[in-house]
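Supplementary notes for students who missed Thursday's class. We covered one full example, reproduced here. Read the sequence, then the structure, then the short commentary at the end.
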Amino acid sequence: MDDVNYDAKGGFRRIELLTGPGRRRRWSAEEKAQIVAETLRPEARVSDVARRWQVCPQQVFGWRREARLAAEAEAASPANPPAAHFVPIVTDASSRVRRQAAPPAAPIIEVNLAGAVVRVGDLSDGAQLTAVLRAIRASASDA
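Structure (token representation):
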């Protein structure tokens, strides 16, 4: 009984009730990667993802930075050499032969008639070309 009375006479005591997750949690690499992947989705907000996982948003930004630096380091590693910016030109006889074997570009005829320019690339339909030129000539003579 003395103990109970003694505690009651000692005054107020402070009691904290922690309802959230315990601090100093350990996150696996898979969990971090999943959280970072969620923040990289279109229209995702880091604060919403952090709240859902009960993590401080600054911690998520740190994980994103670490992931970006790790990806940059992996891209620069000797196993993944950077892409060449310049490619040397090598000429030999076979490349000249291939270039000569390519069909020439289709001829283009340009006709300036009565202030109109007609460019014809397909010469297979001569009747249509004749009709167009006659129409231009007729419109020029009417004016």
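Commentary. Helices lie at 2-9, 29-39, 46-53, 57-75, 93-101, 126-142. The first strand starts at residue 109 and ends at 113. If anything here is unclear, bring it to office hours.
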